[in-house]
Amino acid sequence: MKAQVQLEIDAAQSIKRQLMDEIAHWIEDNQLKQAEAAEVLNISRPHVSDVVNHKTTKFTIDALVAMLARTGKRVQVQVYT
């Protein structure tokens, strides 16, 4: 049981890191300062730093998806069995 829970936590953390990578790449590609990115993402400047530094515990998956939507990117989910 404990191993299964850890697998689920690891999977969620991996998804968050992937979403954060996309946001960080968007910031870099557009040569934005953190304050500029914060305005578009509708979060504080320190939270932009948290995203870029992959502080996954500070964000939910849905919050990260909403941020990506604000950048004009779409998120598509696939489920594998």
Question: How would you portray this structure in words?
Answer:
With 81 residues, the chain is mostly helical. The chain is 67% helix and 0% strand. The protein contains 4 helices and no strands. The longest helix is centred in the N-terminal third of the chain and has 28 residues, at 2-29. The mean pLDDT is 95.
Q: pLDDT average, as an integer?
A: 95
Rounded to the nearest angstrom, the distance between the terminal CA atoms is: 19 Å
Give the helix proportion (percent range): 55-70%
Q: What is the N-to-C order of secondary-structure elements (H for helix, E for strand)?
A: HHHH
- SS element count, helices: 4
Strand percent estimate: under 5%
- What are the low-pLDDT stretches, counting only 5+ consecutive residues below 50? none
Topology at a glance:
Layout: H1 2-29, H2 34-41, H3 45-52, H4 61-70
Helix pairs in contact: 1-4, 2-3
What tags apply to this protein structure?
about 80 residues, mainly alpha, elongated
Brief account:
This protein is mainly alpha-helical and 81 residues long.
